[in-house]
Amino acid sequence: MSGWRSAPGIALTLEALVDLQAGQGAMPRQRPMARRAGVMASRHPGSGMDLREIRAYVPGDDPRRIDPSASARTGVPHVRALHEDRDDITLLIADLRGPMLWGTGDALRSVRGARHLAGLGWQAVARQGAVGLIVAEGAGVRVLPPATGAGHMLTLCRLLVDRHAAALADPPGTAPLTEALSLAARTAPTGAHVVLATLPDGWQGADAALSRLARGRRLEVALILDPLEVTPPPRPLPVRRDGVVRVLRLEPADLGAVTDGLAALGAVARQVAP
């Protein structure tokens, strides 16, 4: 990476994401032998072999859990997820579409969004939870299924850095987040914590997919705010739209309607200020 794409606040660096690990608490010296990493003890005892769900296979799933009957019936590989314990799973969704590659402060929205998600990921690692990542790009998605451990979290950070650099080199489009949210619904089991980092209106156009994802999961939408939306300049500014330049006075963003709209879909809005 060279030129403007390597400038601080524009480039997303692995060092910056790894540094977020500090302050998340010391890792436990040992793990209870009777419990898998990435799960919390359930209040309801079970045999450890209870079937939680059969879902579509996602790259990275254990091939030994492929369900032959469901795979043959649907023509698509499916895996069996067991309800041994209550999973502590965090699925992060990074919006790296074109509108996120912008900012008026000391960092692009996309950089600040990635840092926010990485911090949550390190928190999950510190409590021995599993963390996964979906990257929404203009023409597709990338996925890293949930797993535990600092090594996996480092892989997640590298994926974020790599896809951010690719987005800067070839800015993606603005297709709705439908594909990424639908993949998240197939990846995150019931009870998982799902966090989407996007701009205030970034989720719009994918309402149905967002609502499906929220069912049975804790869905949080982190609204990555730009300084202009929080404290706009007092003087009018020239704004170009559709080839026409107008002088407008900017007002602080009114996020009430956004918060209400997300709540109606089952999601919680979190404002991430500059």
Mean pLDDT: 84
* Share of β-strand residues: 15-25%
Q: What is the SS-derived class?
A: alpha/beta
Helix share, percent: 25-40%
Distance between the termini: 25 Å
Q: Please indicate the count of domains.
A: 2
Q: Helix and strand string, N-terminal first?
A: HEEHEEEHEEHHEHEHEEHE
Number of strands: 12
CATH class category name of the largest domain: Alpha Beta
Strand order of the largest sheet: 7-6-5-8-9-12
Low-confidence stretches: 25-49
- Output the number of helix runs: 8
Main sheet?
Answer: 6 strands, mixed
Q: What does the oligomeric state look like here? A: single chain
Globular, elongated, flat, extended or rod-shaped: what is the shape? globular
Radius of gyration: 20 Å
Query: CATH superfamily of the largest domain, please?
Result: von Willebrand factor, type A domain
CATH fold description of the largest domain: Rossmann fold
Q: What would the keywords be for this entry?
A:
6-stranded mixed beta sheet; 24% strand; 2 domains; two-stranded antiparallel ribbon; 274 residues; alpha/beta; Rossmann fold
Structure description:
This protein is 30% helix and 24% strand. By secondary structure, it is of the alpha/beta class. It folds into 2 domains: 3-28 and 85-229 and 255-272, von Willebrand factor, type A domain (Rossmann fold); 42-82, no CATH class. The strands form 4 sheets. Strands 7-6-5-8-9-12 form a 6-stranded mixed beta sheet, sandwiched between helices. A two-stranded antiparallel sheet has the order 1-4. Strand 8, helix 6 (207-214) and strand 9 (218-224) form a beta-alpha-beta unit. Helix 3 (109-126) runs antiparallel to helix 4 (150-169) and helix 5 (178-187) packs parallel to helix 6. The longest helix has 20 residues, at 150-169. The radius of gyration is 20 Å and the shape is globular. The model is unreliable at 25-49 (pLDDT under 50).
